[in-house]
Amino acid sequence: MIERFGLGDHIAMKKPHACGGNEWIVTRTGADIKIKCMQCGRVVMLDRGDFLRSARKNLTEGTEKPNEPEN
Question: What's the chain's Rg over C-alpha atoms?
């Protein structure tokens, strides 16, 4: 599970996509997270909880300042 992410970050997910790729790029953040598969280009929207549970690690940081955990 990752704690920090932002727009443009490349994220490795726990399960591979149907095309075989498991690297995604974050294209929208908010209550829902929109990610795009780097291998086939498919766009998927997940609610924040599902995204945080299934994201394994942040491979590269994008252009936007990462979201800070609220503690």
Answer: 11
Q: How far is CA 44 from CA 16, 47, 51, 69, in A?
A: 13, 10, 10, 23
Q: b or e along 18-53 (b: 16 or more beta carbons within 10 Å of the residue's beta carbon)?
A: eeebbbbbbeebeeebbbebbeeeeeeebeeeebee
Q: What tokens does 45 get?
A: 């929207």
Average pLDDT over residues 41-55: 95
pTM of the model: 0.79
* Residue 54, both tokens: 């299934």
Distance CA 21, CA 29 (A): 21
